[in-house]
């Protein structure tokens, strides 16, 4: 095979096949979770060819050790982040609430992996809506958890529901994208004695396999499925290109994945990609494509901002206005006399300027961290 001379890929660190889950977590993820606790929104993507260890990196093997309490050596980024979050909360004795949600994107359809409404295993389909704070997933279940151990049960429930299908490359290959989100509300008292709430958010994204359809052996109905998965990844690639090249139009709206993760792509979030590869000759093409993809993303300039701290009074005011809006919507629906539109929404529709809501100064530098994890021996 002819090899081209090319520039090296700019990744922060390469983890070899025998690097432990603990090593990857300590060196790549701990600082990110710390930033979440400081009030930032952060996103970690696992991106790569099927069977190269994305799910292993994010979820890992058995989450608890034999004693049933501590983490097993195989535990991945999700359980380790959860443990770090609760350890930090316990050590600082801060009054906090931790909420999690878990969704799946499969064939451009969003599903709540934590919904209880799914008698007979019918997964609840979700819709994406735009509101003044960005994109929201309508009706997504947010589960309040009180301890790390409780989150493991939630995670187990969700992972069991993820759709999987067999391909030649990986028998239990996940054909869907999944997003596990953790939101932490932390109560603080300012030097002036005012009660405020600091919010941090962490999205942990396990993307579907990036390989092409013929290589993975997907056929017939499954080819359609693979096509749709590639459509989402293709749009993700186009969004990255548009952001890197500063194009006027960024095609976020072309796929649900990019709509959903819009803020993590050129937005206010700090973003990390773990590119998983199988460095064998057989997978050379995919490896190059994965590393090119991740490398390009590094040139995106994010503008991370600490989430604004919300005072108790402001929070109560916001919740009251939300309740009032819902009440008016309900009345309008019951009386079937039209649709209730809030003053703010009406002004938006009329093209009147919206009141500014954020005052934080934007960061200058790119906030993308790229890591690479290699897996040897699992590919065929
Ligand atoms: N670093 C590793 N050490 C040990 N085993 C690993 C490692 N990475 C992956 N594996 C194993 O390799 C197999 C494939 O990994 P995994 O399911 O995580 O791949 P994937 O990239 O998520 O695939 P898909 O795209 O189909 O979801 C699994 O059996 C997993 O346990």
UniProtKB/TrEMBL annotation:
One of its GO terms (biological process) is microtubule-based movement. The keyword Repressor does not apply. It is found in: Cytoplasm, Cytoskeleton, Spindle. Gene3D superfamilies: Kinesin motor domain. InterPro entries: KIF11-like, KIF11-like_kin_motor_dom, Kinesin_motor_CS, Kinesin_motor_dom, Kinesin_motor_dom_sf, P-loop_NTPase. GO terms for molecular function: ATP binding; microtubule binding; plus-end-directed microtubule motor activity. Residues 1-300 form the Kinesin motor domain. CDD domains: KISc_BimC_Eg5. SMART domains: KISc. Pfam families: Kinesin. Its main location: cytoplasm. Keywords: ATP-binding, Cytoplasm, Cytoskeleton, Microtubule, Motor protein, Nucleotide-binding. GO terms for cellular component: mitotic spindle; spindle microtubule. Belongs to the TRAFAC class myosin-kinesin ATPase superfamily. Kinesin family. KIN-5/BimC subfamily. Responsible for microtubule translocation. May be important for the organization of phragmoplast-specific arrays of microtubules. Plays an essential role in stabilizing the mitotic spindle. Required during mitotic cytokinesis. This is Kinesin-like protein. It comes from Volvox carteri f. nagariensis.
